[in-house]
Amino acid sequence: MRRIANRILLTVVGLGLLVGGLAVVARSRGWLHDQLGDLLRTRDKPLITPSQTERLTDESWWWWVAFGVPGLLLVICLWWFFAQFRRRPVRVIRVADTSEDAGGGPSGLGTGFGLVGDDADTITVSGYALADAIADDLARIPGVESAHAQLVVRRPGPKLKLAIRTEAGAEPRDVLLAVQDEVVEHGRDAVELHRLPVEVELRNAGGLPRRHLQ
Amino acid sequence: MNVLDAPLDKPGQPGGPGDPADPGQPDDPNGPAEAGPGAVARKPRRAWSPRGFVAALTALVLGGAAGVLLYFGIAARLERTPQWAYDTLDWVQTHKWSEQSVWVGGAIAAVLGLWLLVLAWTPGRRHLLPLQPVGPDMTAYMTRRTAGNLLRHTALSSTGVLDARVRVTRRKAVLRVDYHFRDPDELHDELETALRARADALLLARVPRVDVRLQPSSGR
């Protein structure tokens, strides 16, 4: 969501700057003189004439625009700026609802994720604890030097982001298969999630594998 | 309690991970070809950056400009306009459209706008190469440095190879190999075969073309 919003807003700002900049250059250099006529014949006039300033400030709507547009822009920019630093880790995962009327969750067993209350019928797991447990399991895979796991909020369910650093000689295929079959499946089953999308970033340690050093 | 130590004796839910009829679950852990129709149908995509730094910087600059304008407006309304505001207004009213500083400023704004558009429409995260997924819900990437290291290890395991420097892009892997005591044609063929097989085995969504360039060692 943040990625899409950023790209849309960057497109809007970029288009504004490109079109505005080109318009200034065109007016300044006298390009498109024939097509735009009077507008471009003013290139020897000041950027803003005193009469234009007076005309603007005499309008009744001027002060609303003078306060409203920068004010609105400031609010949007503040929201946009602080949105870049917002992180959305999954804090709590509702594992199972043992009450009789359970069944509203995505897997049909009352499972899901999100903040839950102190309902005695509900078992919850900390998202951080699950991520740490997954990271510990990852570190036990042969060929994995270190690993970091994070559960982030996505729609419709949480997403698991893994950063794995493998040993120099480790096979990426073997590591990924172990991640999928041993760790992700296990973690997903443990918290009864129907789906757990995973994003893996593989890096390997520099240097040479052990076989080259012997 | 380690949540991953939870017992796994639950019956498979329909369509869930334990369901034997689930087409997304690979029966044979041999790789993506056997990973089921769900995995095969999904084409790996490049990693898209959120462009957080550029967005924060743009928001900061735009917000700053908007704040200055707002301050300018409020100060003018309260008839407490600062001197720098008068100076700015004076500059705008005394400089003509045809002046060099005006069109240079416009050109800089246009270039900045073009740069922002390029950033908005390109994926970014060029250091990550997409991998073929081994599971239905898995998206995997490998850094270009990692792919380069793995290809370098393969090159170094050939007899006569002293060192190898690797540059990997999405389309191409260029290896500059220092060698000695080997017939260059024979070594080239051997390296090319081994490196192609290695590149195929890396699970990269787009297997790069391998380009081997041999350089005889100076101490030959």
TrEMBL record, chain A:
Which keywords does this chain's UniProt record carry? Membrane, Transmembrane, Transmembrane helix
Give the stretches traversing the membrane.
Answer: 61-82
Record-given protein name: Alkaline shock response membrane anchor protein AmaP
Q: Which organism is it from?
A: Yinghuangia soli
Automatic annotation (TrEMBL), chain B:
Annotated keywords: Membrane, Transmembrane, Transmembrane helix
Domain DUF6286: start-end pairs: 111-214
- The portions of this protein that span the membrane are 52-74, 102-122
A Pfam family annotated for this chain is DUF6286
Domain of life of the source: Bacteria
Name recorded for this polypeptide: Alkaline shock response membrane anchor protein AmaP
User: Bias regions of kind Low complexity — which residues?
Assistant: 19-33
State the organism of origin. Yinghuangia soli
Q: Which residues form the signal peptide?
A: none
**InterPro entries linked to this entry:** DUF6286
Q: Where is this region: Disordered?
A: 1-44
